[in-house]
Write a structure and sequence with these properties.
Blueprint lengths: L3 H8 L4 H22 L1 H4 L6 E3 L4 H8 L3 H8 L15 E3 L19 H5 L3 E3 L4 E3 L6 H5 L7 H28 L1 H20 L4 H28 L3 H28 L3 H9 L1 H4 L11 H6 L3 H14 L15 H4 L11 H27 L7 H10 L2 H14 L2 H20 L5 H29 L2 H9 L1
Antiparallel strand pairs: 1-4, 2-3
């Protein structure tokens, strides 16, 4: 009886069928990148906002002020008192009497000296935003003392990624790759809709967490399927190219955000494509490698005949069964990742590599280009910087292996980030340039980690290794 790799070679290791499935699943990289870095535009800090002052709205309505006039008249300029910062987080503790206040000079009853001694109070009545629904910051008042909650939304999303990696990683090993992929696409789509229309911040956080769970499910299953339906020689190419689509998503996102003025609109635009992936039910088969590990050889063989037919090949009629090794049909657990000294060494190194790659990459994505200038253009350029990473990997890993490019890219990223920390703030172009070099280095490192992770583990442990 032939082995799976022998049957795959005869059916075509990377023929027309695999290329079609590969291209379809690569689109998942685009939508996952939207989820991964979307907070940069969903949570962009509004340019103009100030303390909502009791009575000011009624006074503004009576006097017919514009928003700018309301700010100018009711929030004293910062030069009146040094400890007052444009009215964003504190305001003068003034009781407005809108029947006796002048519409042209409402602060005329106070002298500059008395204003300087006027006690300050926090913004107890909320804030006024020039564009109230432009970002989640203005939607849920994530400013001043609540500013840390913006980063909490990303931490919660990452907690969802962590949960999804383990729960859906286990489910994909038990119930099938494509089934969990489709359920995850449905889940991330539905949760994304709830996030867009969340009535309050706690609901927003809960469903952002769930988006993380299902989003991780879509990306992991897509990645594993494309690496399992091709031959071992093509695995490195598909493993790198699918990550180029992640980069394309990062480059597309600023255009979406530029064209759509509200955060709800952006959220819908980056969520709805997930529902289109449900059509893959009719286009993407189950991983035949996985079917063999679950002792479903007949189904696997039927899929192999389909692959051969689409690739213009022909499987020998005596292929009535495909053999697999005892290792492949075993029922592994996470403990198998550390059971032998060799496997334990690989697993510990990969765990550390994943941790550093994810931390540094996300830190650079969240902060690079957000220090001023044109956010949309800067973010697009920082995404484009990632494209050479894939090319460098494809050019080097076959010639000099995986370890040396991985080591060099990490060293480059580390040194660049260290230098960036000590560069003066008054040379922003140099700071951004060095940080961009760090972004290129860590992108290479991250993509190599993905690739090596799928190469080092057998089929039965591949998902668990990726999940861990």
């Amino acid at each position: 009886m032939p082995s799976f790799d022998e049957v795959l070679k005869e059916a075509g290791e990377f023929g027309r069928f695999q290329k079609r499935v590969f291209f379809l699943l690569c689109q998942t990289g685009i939508t996952f990148s939207f989820l991964f870095v979307g907070v940069v535009f969903l949570g962009h800090t509004p340019e103009y906002y100030w303390c909502r002052i009791p009575g000011a709205a009624e006074l503004s309505e009576r006097c017919g002020w514009t928003l700018e006039e309301e700010q100018n008249y009711t929030v004293p300029a910062s030069n009146l008192v040094n400890r007052f910062s444009s009215g964003q987080c504190e305001r003068f503790d003034i009781e407005w009497n809108n029947t006796s206040v002048s519409c042209t000079n409402p602060l005329s009853r106070f002298t500059n000296r008395s204003l300087g001694n006027m006690p300050l109070t926090s913004c107890q009545d909320g804030w006024v935003y020039k564009q109230p629904h432009s970002t989640i910051i203005s939607e849920y008042n994530l400013v001043c003392a609540n500013a840390w909650m913006l980063d909490l939304t990303q931490a919660v999303l990452n907690l969802g990624f962590l949960t999804g990696a383990f729960t859906l990683g286990y489910a994909a090993d038990r119930y099938g790759r494509i089934r969990i992929y489709l359920y995850s696409c449905l889940g991330v789509g539905l949760c994304g809709l709830v996030v867009a229309f969340a009535p309050n911040f706690p609901i927003f956080l809960i469903f952002r967490f769930l988006q993380g769970v299902f989003g991780k499910g879509t990306w992991m299953t897509a990645y594993v399927i494309v690496t399992e339906i091709v031959g071992s020689d093509q695995r490195r190419i598909v493993g790198i190219v699918i990550q180029i689509f992640f980069t394309l998503g990062i480059m597309i996102l600023p255009g979406i955000a530029y064209l759509i003025p509200t955060w709800q609109g952006i959220q819908l635009a980056i969520t709805l494509p997930n529902f289109l992936f449900l059509l893959y039910y009719w286009a993407v088969p189950e991983s035949p490698r996985w079917l063999l590990t679950r002792k479903k050889g007949e189904k696997a063989l039927n899929i192999m005949h389909t692959i051969a037919k689409h690739n213009g090949k022909y499987l020998s009629p005596h292929y009535s069964e495909i053999t697999v090794t005892d290792e492949e049909v075993s029922n592994p657990s996470f403990l198998d990742l550390v059971r032998t000294p060799h496997m334990r060494k690989y697993t510990l190194i990969l765990m550390y590599a994943w941790f550093t790659s994810a931390l540094v990459y996300q830190g650079l994505v969240m902060r690079l280009g957000i220090i001023g200038g044109n956010l949309y253009l800067d973010f697009f350029i920082s995404g484009a910087v990632e494209l050479p990473a894939a090319l460098l990997i494809l050019l080097t890993i076959d010639r000099i292996g995986r370890r040396l490019p991985f080591a060099i890219s990490n060293i480059v990223a580390g040194v660049a980030c260290l230098i960036t920390a000590f560069l003066p703030e008054d040379i922003p172009w140099l700071k951004t340039s060095v940080a961009t070099l760090g972004r290129l280095g860590i992108t290479m490192a991250f993509e190599i980690v993905y690739l090596v992770n799928s190469e080092l583990y057998p089929t039965t442990l591949r998902f668990k290794g990726l999940a861990l």
